[in-house]
Amino acid sequence: MTSILILNGPNLNLLGTRQPDVYGTTTLSDIEQMCQTAAKALGVTLAFHQENSEGAMVDHIHAARDTHDGIILNAGAYTHTSIALMDAISSVELPVIELHLSNTLAREEFRHKSYISPVALGVICGFGAAGYEHSLRAMVQHLEACS
Ligand code: CA2
User: Fold this and answer.
1) Which of 141, 144, 132, 67 is nearest to 98 (CA)?
2) Ligand 1, residues 11, 17, 27, 109: which to mutate, most atoms within 8 A of Cβ?
3) Mutate to test the pocket of ligand 1, among 12, 54, 81, 134 (most ligand atoms within 8 A of CB)
């Protein structure tokens, strides 16, 4: 069965508890439930993780090579700084969808730079929690088209 990894970066464990004006009121656990339900309906297996440290995220990406068919990545603030994540993505040769809750291009200038975009299949941003389900559908459609 097709298997997809959704990997969340730093501070996303705080979702729904602070800055609801920017990131909404849905918690990461709500999002995981929503994604698991969608994955079941789409007939795929889903692993869902959140890490605050860059190295742990790199480890998940490396491990995905042998266990998953695609990665949906909300790298949080590491999006704008991490060459290590960019290199890890390049090294595993799996399709990666870059995901953001907010429209990063409509925010501060430092959020306009992404080290993930050049090595991603595509980017979904600005749709809040619904973006997770959109990304899942886009990944399944992409993997089906490739098989
Ligand atoms: O919009 C997104 O999904 C971001 O990846 C979220 C990151 C931000 O640094 C990126 O530029 C865009 C921040 C995640 C922090 O999440 C929080 C949630 C609630 C309260 C505080 C932080």
Assistant:
1) 132
2) 11
3) 12
**What is the chain's mean pLDDT, rounded?**
97
Tens of pLDDT, residues 3-58: 999 999 999 999 998 888 888 899 999 999 999 999 999 999 999 999 999 999 99
CA gap 116, 42 in Å, rounded: 26
- The one-letter code for the residue type at 21 is D
Which residues are identified as catalytic? Answer: 23, 100
CA 112/CA 46 separation, integer angstroms: 29
Tell me if 77 CB under 6 Å of ligand 1: yes
Interatomic CA distance for residues 102 and 66, integer angstroms: 31
Domains of the chain: 3-146 (3.40.50.9100)
